[in-house]
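Bit of a strange request maybe. I'm writing a small parser for structure token strings and I need a real example to test against, not something I typed by hand. Could someone generate the tokens for this chain?
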Amino acid sequence: MISIEHLSMEFSSRPVLDDVTFLINRKERIALVGKNGAGKSTLLRLIAGEYQPTSGRISREAEMTIGYLPQVMLHQDGRTLREEMLTVAHTSDENELARFVAEMDRTIIGLGFERKDFDRQCNEFSGGWRMRIELAKILLQHPDLLLLDEPTNHLDIESIQWLEDFLKTSPSAVLLVSHDRAFINNVCARTIEITLGRIYDYNVNYDRFVELRKERHEQQVRAYQNQQKMIQDTEDFIERFRYKATKAVQVQSRIKQLEKLERLEVDLEDTSRLNLRFPPAPRSGDFPLIVEDLSKSFGEHNVFHDVTFTIRRGEKVAFVGKNGEGKTTLVKCIMGQLDYLGTLKVGHNVKIGYFAQNQAALLDENLTVFDTIDYVAVGDIRTKIRDILGAFMFGGEASEKKVKVLSGGERSRLAMIRLLLEPCNLLILDEPTNHLDMQSKDVLKAALADFNGTVICVSHDRDFLNGLVSKVYEFGGGRVKEHLGGIYDFLRAKKIDSLQDLERKIPKDLKDLKDPKFPTDSKQDYAAQKAAAAERRKREKQIADTEEAIAQLEAQQAEIEQQLAFPENQTPELFQKYETVKHQIEQKMYEWELLSE
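Reply from user aminoacidic:
Good idea to test on real output. This should exercise your parser:
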């Protein structure tokens, strides 16, 4: 279906892809893996036709269609969700349109939207939800090839499961980039790794690929070490006999031998054996957290109510549920950042370590990456700072970067490293894996498994939670339900619950849902509603202004990317401008998240 032949790509004379060749066949589902910056997104953009290669070619079957979901995209405003979906319905036949509308409903509901969202303006949705809109539009077009760049980043567990099932039954071929190990294991039967500009193609799923890659890496290291020893021995011979006339012929022969030698390259940075440990947790009381009859509302919107649970010392638990159901809100109640009704007790001698989505904004921008960690590291761990930074993609020169030049994702990773080194006995982590690659996630997961304190983890990453947590708290419908067992025990139970939910009667008229216990016609209620509405309008204006700024910056970014698609435009100045705009987008996204909360 698609043939990639001897493909090479350079940015400012820096090779990203070097002589890459492979085929994509019909209905194949392929995972594209590699470290951040290895060239995965670049390869997707080349196949999508957004970039032109430095050399080589990409051959496509005639009339084949491609659906491409990038990490960053431009959005058109002025349409409702339903109207935006209908833009991909290229038919006027009523029967065909009816079938499309039924499929459209299933798709956008599967991706987490509710029917009440259908008539909302697209510009009312956050960047994450707009990504879901674009994904739905692509899926509904049933292209011959789907190119998906981190499609699960803004999806909750239920939506990820729905997308898995969709892709497994879709007739489209799939080439996807994802750091969600469970997702790519369940979807893909072939794995292509990009490393040092080259590709390694494995006709197996990701877990089997990891085993085979380890064997390949060990072989490469041995070959590299043998070659380095041969080079050193040859150079020693040349140096020793360079000025001896009787050895002149042999010396010249060895010099020519080195000149013709094809030098082996190998990625020597191996974090698989890095054993990162949290500092020993100070002993807390038996119950680090007790919650009784807890409720939280914003104006008239009740987020959750009657929440009661107790977390024991040493337990590791997960908070899961759809976006907007109150997971982060409850965490902020625990941290004392929000008021609430009910009882919330933090136990005796509890020292909380907290990783929030905006944690990166609190870093000192004038410090280097290395100094940021060096200032909090104590004891023997200080001798391993370079190794730790390498495990989290700050190896080599990257450790000397100033924090102020880092992207939002890089700052999040740095904030996570700093948290790992601070002594605490209750860790609260809100989506800690969003900006980590698989190796970094493995390092973090191993450290958490060894941690002798208590852990609360808000996450949609099933593979990360699997084997780590022994209890799951499900947020939904204003309630918090406790499930004993691991994340896959919860998912199995949830599937049964979902079938039961289908049998429940849903009122035909929304008026049936009104509760007579809460009258709305008193003057006092009216005044409160009016004040709440005014405050809401103010916040919505601020959010709209921020979203407009983000849209303008994303338009700049897209324009620069179009310029960078041509080698003659790939100057250091334009790359610096691209990084600056990218950083500004990250900052505005932080502002947007804070305003939305």
